[in-house]
Design goal:
The protein is α+β, with helices and mostly antiparallel strands and 352 residues long. It has helices at 14-22, 75-82, 97-103, 116-119, 186-197, 228-237, 269-274, 297-309, 332-345; strands at 4-5, 8-9, 28-31, 47-50, 57-61, 66-70, 87-88, 120-126, 132-136, 161-168, 170-171, 175-184, 203-210, 218-226, 258-263, 282-285, 289-294, 313-318. The structure holds flavin-adenine dinucleotide.
């Protein structure tokens, strides 16, 4: 183990992580680069188990388009290693790969696109008591049995510690052009979104965005990929404006306000948007995930009611303690299975 300072520990490899867990030091909060920690409930006295010391790209098999990476490898580190092979991890997200897959805050960038769930082929992991286990495979060909590794996606560090991830990669497209059509009214934006969703192929990412201070106007952004002449023809046909702006992955949490995050299918968007204040920042990714920031609690409650009536789901991810975690109703059966799963994998509720 390389450093221990107070309640923070940063092991260098999986064996050292197992040693920390076997020492039973009380409750443990897993940390990647830490970007989402302020959205989790604080647990006083919990040991911060920092996984950024596990940072080796163990295997990069370019012909098979797969790789195996330690959980603390960052997205930027992996992108740099893949670029010379003209490969990419085709899903949005930042931070460490362990944190990205465990929190899955964005899902797919485009309708029907790849997401952490579809890109995770397998993993090496540790139970809360330090017991090591493996699930899935290092390569695309899978093995029989439950895909236990898929439980990592969205587990937010509460089920087990994924120490190594086996990932599917994709070739970089021949051409990819980003576009951003700005300052649209709501109907024009939703119409363009629909036209883009109807493209038979080539749509790599899609976003509907309203930023703070943008006068209430809507931006439809994304990227088209494929052969250069196909990309150019698609941009022309839909009057898409080329743009070099970077994709927006998250909204800034407002001082004193709340952030609501969830899932809304395109058919739910008109009702959801009608239930928001006219200047509320809003970001929707083509796979269906959205975030919105609201200035006061009763605006959040109105948005939740609009979303529930449109069949969407959301919960408050940033707010005063006591409001965090509230959201649209969760099916009682689903909740019971999630509780039982947590109990089976971490019976002493160590991981928090
Ligand atoms: C500069 C920056 C800004 C960001 N802003 C936002 C934002 O505003 N909103 C937002 O939603 N996301 C934000 N992200 C998150 C981001 O896009 C990632 O998807 C990812 O969630 C964060 O990874 P992390 O390494 O910071 O993880 P952390 O924030 O440290 O951890 C995320 C979750 O994963 C768990 N976890 C971490 N590693 C493991 C592991 N190996 N096994 C099991 N569980 C694990 C943690 O316990 C935690 O619950 C931001 C990231 C960056 C780099």
């Amino acid at each position: 183990m390389s450093s221990i300072a107070g309640t923070h520990v940063r092991p260098r490899d999986a064996a050292a992580v197992a040693e920390v867990l076997r020492a039973r030091l009380g409750r443990v909060r897993l940390h990647g680069s830490g970007s989402r920690q302020q959205r989790l409930e604080p647990v006083p006295g919990a040991l911060a188990l920092d996984l950024t010391g596990l940072a080796t790209i163990d295997r990069l098999d370019a012909p098979d388009q797969t790789c195996s990476v330690d959980c603390g490898v960052t997205r930027a580190q992996l992108d740099d290693a893949l670029r010379p092979h003209r490969l990419e991890l085709p899903c949005p997200g930042d931070g460490t790969l362990g944190g990205l897959f465990a929190s899955d805050p964005i899902g797919a960038a485009a309708p029907g696109g790849q997401s952490p769930r579809s890109l995770l082929l397998g993993m090496d992991a540790l139970l809360a008591d330090g017991t090591p286990f493996k699930s899935g495979a290092r390569v695309v060909k899978s093995v029989a049995g439950f895909d236990v590794h898929k439980l990592l996606v969205g587990s937010e560090g509460r089920l087990f510690v994924a120490t190594r991830l086996h990932l599917r990669l994709k070739p970089l497209p021949r051409a990819r052009v980003a576009f951003a059509n700005q300052a649209l009214d709501r109907e024009a934006a939703l119409r363009l979104l629909q036209q883009l969703r109807e493209l038979p192929h080539g749509l790599q990412s899609l976003q509907l965005l309203r930023v703070a201070g943008g006068g209430g106007g809507w931006n439809v952004r994304g990227a088209i990929a494929g052969r250069a002449n196909f990309v150019a023809a698609t941009l022309r046909a839909l009057s898409l404006q080329e743009s070099d702006a970077h994709p927006v992955l998250h909204l800034e949490a407002p001082a004193g306000g709340e952030v609501l995050a969830g899932l809304a299918l395109p058919s739910a968007l008109p009702r959801l948007l009608a239930g928001l204040p006219t200047d509320a920042p809003f970001l929707w990714h083509g796979g269906g995930r959205f975030e919105t920031t609201l200035p006061v609690a009763n605006a959040t409650d109105r948005a939740l009611a609009a979303l529930a009536s449109a069949g969407g789901h959301a919960r408050i991810v940033a707010a005063a303690i006591g409001r965090r975690g509230l959201g649209t109703p969760i099916d009682a059966g689903h909740r019971s299975i999630a509780d039982r799963l947590k109990h089976a994998l971490d019976p002493h509720d160590v991981l928090c």
